[in-house]
Amino acid sequence: MVHIRLALALAVLALAMPAAQAACYVVYGPDQQVVYRAQHPPVDMSRPLHETLPRVAPGGSMVFSLDNFGCELTVNRLPLKASAKAPARGARKNQRKAAAAGAAS
Q1: Higher pLDDT, 34 or 88
Q2: CA angle 101, 88, 35 (to 5 degrees)
Q3: In this predicted structure, what is the pLDDT of residue 70?
Q4: Confidence at 79, pLDDT banded by 50, 70, 90
Q5: How far is residue 35 from each of residues 29, 46, 65, measured CA to CA in Å?
Q6: 27, 36 in Cβ contact below 8 A?
Q7: Alpha-carbon distance 60 to 75, whole Å?
Q8: What value does the mean pLDDT take over residues 70-91?
Q9: DSSP category for residue 38
Q10: Which residue pairs, CB below 8 angstroms and at least 24 apart, start in 83-91?
Q11: Angle (nearest 5°) at CA 77 between 71 and 81
């Protein structure tokens, strides 16, 4: 009878404990510096990473594991700016005109 009560008490305690999040997500920027580290994913994990990660960290990479060692201190330096931005619409045409005008002089 004592064993049953002990087993029941342990079962109640196990159910009452909060579930531990067993994951760590780390995003490295293009320069291999940590730009995100947390126990929650920075992107929608139901989508393929090649679709979602470039929106958050262009040129970056993400590593995740079931171990949360090192994730106690959260790092969040997102969103990153793309290092090589595409020229604005029409800017390339203006650059060509300026180069042609400079060559003609």
Answers
A1: 34
A2: 135
A3: 86
A4: confident
A5: 6, 22, 17
A6: yes
A7: 15
A8: 67
A9: E
A10: 83/30, 83/58, 83/59
A11: 145
Reported pTM: 0.56
Residue type, 81: K
Alpha-carbon torsion (53, 57, 59, 61), positive or negative = negative
Asked if 51 and 62 touch (Cβ cutoff 8 Å), the reply is no
Task: Name the pLDDT band for 14 (thresholds 50, 70, 90).
Answer: low
User: HSE of 23 in the Cβ direction (CA atoms, 13 Å)?
Assistant: 11
The model's confidence at residue 87, banded by pLDDT at 50, 70 and 90, is very low
Angle at 58 between CA 70 and CA 55, to 5 degrees: 95
CB neighbours of residue 37 within 10 Å: 20
- The first and second tokens of residue 15, run together, are 């159910």
